Structure prediction request, 148 residues.
Amino acid sequence: MSPTESSAASIGKSVEIRGEVKGSEDLIVDGHVEGTITLIDSKLTVGPTARVDADVSARDIVILGTLNGNVTATVRVDLRKGGNLTGDVRAARISIEDGSLFSGKVDLSQQQAAAPTTSAKSVASAATAVSATPQTASGGLFTSGSKA
Prediction:
């Protein structure tokens, strides 16, 4: 295994985990995880062979496989071609590619856009993009019609 490959922890194709996964390093899931995944300031990648039945929280989340559960990202969620996400998303940014499936609500928060480390130009463009997005009374873009 090269040093590049070892920079992220990995859950292999044949591995099944039930319970709580916590960490502070990047994680690649190719197996089955059931429960919760919480990564502090790290990236979670749900590989193309993965099945994740869990609520997940991380800095960045990339979905190539199947994820059933609520997703919270402090920066970005990327739903890539072939990915399948069923659950609500809360993130500063979201990207959904053609050929992916998504069912749930989206809540775009501006917390990261106002961070002092970002440039004024990126804050202005992020604020424009978010303010141009229609929001419902429940705060999501995609709602089922019933209000809690």
About this structure: The two ends are 49 Å apart (CA to CA). Confidence is low (pLDDT under 50) at residues 1-5, 112-148. Residues 5-131 form one domain. The first helix runs from residue 120 to 131.
